[in-house]
Design a protein that fits this description.
heterodimer, A: mainly alpha, Cytochrome Bc1 Complex, Chain D, domain 2, three-stranded mixed sheet, two-stranded antiparallel sheet, 7 strands, B: mainly beta, Immunoglobulin-like, five-stranded mixed sheet, three-stranded antiparallel sheet, 8 strands, about 0% helix
Amino acid sequence: MKRLLAVLLVLIAPVQADDRRSGYSFMTPETRAMQDDDSSNPASLWVLDGEALWKSEGCASCHKGMAGVAARYPQVDAKQGLVNLEQRINTCRVEKQKAAPFAYESRELLALTAFIGRQSRGQPIDIKADAKTKPFLEAGRAAFFRRQGQLNLACTQCHDQQWGKSLVGNPIPQAHPTGYPIYRLEWQGMGSLQRRLRNCYVGVRAEPHAYGAKEYVELELYLMWRANGMKLEAPAVRP
Amino acid sequence: MSTVSTARTIVRMPATAKRGEVIEIRTLVGHVMETGFRRAAAGGLVPRDIVRNFVCSYNGAEVFRAELHPAIAANPLVSFTVVAAESGSLEFRWSGDNGFAASASASLVVT
């Protein structure tokens, strides 16, 4: 009887029309295999660097572990407003460690974000849409739907409306930032979500913002919120 | 400011094997593998900087050697097989342009 009731409940419950797909599902089996095995995923080299920095820089004296942390960024900071994981690391360095901040896309910052991201692998992305995040989410959402650049394209036109089709031979993914920082084969190296966003800006021939610009962080927040509940794969491999 | 200068290596192989068994060894080394054919923004060639050689020795005897070339991707992965003959250690050495040198070792118990 209990089982029947459970089946009935499942049937009555609204169907979760979740056809969201990670960029992983658009990749070839070879690239997927590369990501799946830590001994063939080149991002593991950055994770090792990050682990070494974590110890040498004394991060461990305050932080026990970082499980689940990467799944909750960007976050609203009381003083600084919206910050992403990279900016949070640098705040820690400047305020707590009295050290110079790492440059955006530096090997050190990518290593630390990869090391922290790795500890959240498999955890669902968890961005809260509340009064604090609302203005930033709305700004990010507006950017996602805003046409820009000489090609006059909005993010939504490719990533909501045309995903799965081909763009110069490559499948268009749904733009869920599930694996950042990523090892991108095209880059032959690691890169943050902002590096990837700059690629798209240049692709539609829009003027890219500087690294760390609030426009990017808001867009990051919106993309992460859009991917809420999807599992983190950081650090992922992408073609 | 702290920097990362050591080359990272990752070696994956079984810790134990039966005598005569063929085991797969997979190695990864962090390296930019700059081809020497690319040009910088100012137009000049970016000098070549690649890993030239990879050698694996098994209890002191060389069992595998590879020569690497400019068309090989960054962070080269080398995968090969070895016959598990006796217990002991395996040494992995990478060398390349600009005095690049990296090494790793692993032990194998043969039953």
